[in-house]
């Protein structure tokens, strides 16, 4: 069984619990308390505690992003859904509308 199979074998709740556990590790690495995160993120202390303990399976994306921002790891969000490389059709379309050579008038 590979990692992808293992991921797809987990429920949404299990995945969110794992994210909460990882978030706690990040927060502790930053030497921040749950209260500090809640204040910086503008979320309740209950939200932070519930997320980290795995009791919050319905955390909003807004709260999650705010908490990542609070601990200084917002750039990690791009790893959730990295940009897709352009398709050949997109490249062709971009090249089609590329400006041609521009001449300066004298």
TrEMBL record:
Q: Which PROSITE patterns match?
A: HTH_CROC1
Q: Which residues form the HTH cro/C1-type domain?
A: 23-77
User: What InterPro entries does this protein's entry cite?
Assistant: Cro/C1-type_HTH, Lambda_DNA-bd_dom_sf
GO molecular function terms listed in the Swiss-Prot or TrEMBL record = DNA binding
What is the name attached to this protein's record? Answer: Helix-turn-helix domain-containing protein
